[in-house]
Amino acid sequence: MRNLRRVCVPAMVTSLAMSLSACGGPGSMAFDDGTLEITANITDRAAMEGVVAAFERENPQAEAVVTYADTDRLQSSLPAQLSSGTGPDVFTVWPGYGNPAALRTLEATGRLADLSDLDFVRDVPEDTKWVTQVGGRTYVVPTNYSGIGAIYGKTALRDIGGTEPATWEELLELCDKAEAGGKVLFSLGISTPWVTQLADYALAATTVYADRPDFATAMSNGQATFADSGWKEALEKYVELDDRGCFSSDPLGTSYETSIEDVAEGRAVGVIQVAGSSSAITAAAPRLELGMFALPASNNAAQTHMPGAVSAAYGVNADSDNKKLAMRFAEFLGSDTGQNLYNQDSGTLPAIPNDRFTAAPVLRELVEHQKAGTTVPFMDQLWPNPQVQQEHFVQIQELFSGRTDIDGVLTALDETYREE
Hints:
Layout: E1 11-13, E2 34-41, H1 45-58, E3 62-69, H2 71-84, E4 90-93, H3 103-108, E5 133-134, E6 137-138, E7 141-153, H4 154-159, H5 168-180, E8 184-186, H6 198-207, H7 215-220, H8 231-243, H9 256-264, E9 268-274, H10 277-284, E10 290-293, E11 306-316, H11 323-334, H12 336-343, E12 349-350, H13 364-372, E13 375-376, H14 386-401, H15 406-417
Helix pairs in contact: 1-12, 6-8, 9-10, 14-15
């Protein structure tokens, strides 16, 4: 068990967030005065609010102002804000390489403060350090471990006479049962660009990595490609699910928010999403009991793998005018208390494990795959430049609109992967 350094920061959440009033008392001890500006992903709103509320209870002399934005806006706006000197003190950073607001992208331009001397660093698991470090120095606090799979309403699944599928054929049969029961199996909201990647990530975990766990390394060494790999099968199955009626009737006209509403209101049995989206469904339908399963992509159940990795992390602005307070906040996020608060209602696991955390029941299968060693990293975290993920967003939307085919998608991804 780690020692928790007491951090005192009350908070007020603005913009898209709930307003929290400041607390105080003459006996409170504060490390710093001032206002801490935080930018976080809107999908992590419930998680951050829990952390912010804990700071609010402890310190009357400092204020944390949190602004929430969706993934696309953050990835496009954060780098520009940081380069222009208008960036927040603390902000969401994606692990690995995969997008313009990812760790290695921002560190390469000097935008991230070095956190190596903070206490949490010594407790980061070895298999997580590759998404928190560059050159042996730590630049982000990993906050949660998430997975990608099918999140579903248990009552809706029972209503269509279904059970969790273990094979590809069982998954297709479940689509038919949902249609016969007047529902769609999965609400697919790919008008929101980042949602486009989730279904084929979930499928590729099995079609690519089950037989070739070193695939990412082989790609980086020029020994494998998207086109000549299990990625083709993953995309074929993605399209087959659509042709079978497994998805919303108009995925390109459906947003992430609508897909969550579809599950919460019973129009869809479930949604293929990151585990943290279970908290969004629960917020919309508190009495809905949820389950989650890895998306099968083979008729051999033993081959099924599940994407699982550090999903959220936070960095400190290297040019922050309030760096001392920002470092205190980063330290708290990395503590047992900060990790547990961040994950307790978020449908995720602490990125820095501790024995005080009890996983939500919806995470049962993710925990089992993690223990069995059948999780694979989120694919974009290992891609060599942010453009690959952005191209992937575009190509999936083009595929669903009929403006390209699977071979065209794979060719475009390979060309972007090889760009310097």
